[in-house]
Amino acid sequence: MKYIFFTLFLFSASAFAADEVTALEQVMQNLQDIADFFTIGIPDLVSRVIAYAIEFAVYLKVLSFVFMLELATDVAKHIMLDLNLTAHINTAFSSIPPDIGYFLIKFRFPDCVSFLFECYITRFVLNFLGW
Question: So which residues are the signal peptide here (predicted)?
Fold first, then answer.
């Protein structure tokens, strides 16, 4: 049975057709296809596998960075609650004259300042964790 497959592999139906391709040319073409498989096909496969592995590693790196960023943000919020920074910011803005304070509160400037503090604390936590 294996000889039948080998014969069909070496001498395909096109080798027995009425065109001008001889059986020896067909065998040579099949041998060239085998050589192309080992010299072109396998290196292409290896490069694609390496590309997929690098893509997967980058994907894992991005996922881990997103996880660490969420963790650092949660830690920064807890630090801000422990230090009571929001209350300190509000008391600082309450000491500003009322007409200026009205516009600052209207433009949500205290929220902006507390957000900036949260960003700085998040950056500190990420640097502390080695990111």
Answer: 1-17
Question: In this structure, how many other beta carbons lie within 10 angstroms of the beta carbon of residue 12?
Answer: 15
Task: State which amino acid sits at residue 121.
Answer: I
Write out pLDDT tens, residues 20-60. 778 888 889 899 999 888 898 899 999 999 999 999 999 99
What are the extents of the domains in the chain? 2-129
What residue type is assigned to position 30 of the chain? N
CA distance 119 to 77: 10
Q: What are the residue ranges of helices labelled H in the chain? A: 2-10, 23-36, 42-83, 85-94, 98-106, 109-129
Please give the Cα distance from 83 to 81 (Å, whole number): 5
The Cα–Cα gap between 119 and 60 comes to 24
What dihedral do alpha carbons 120, 125, 128, 130 form, nearest 10°?
-100
The answer to pTM > 0.70 is no
The maximal CA–CA distance of the chain, rounded, in angstroms, is 101
Distance, CA of 64 to CA of 54 (rounded, Å): 15
The predicted structure's pLDDT at residue 115: 92
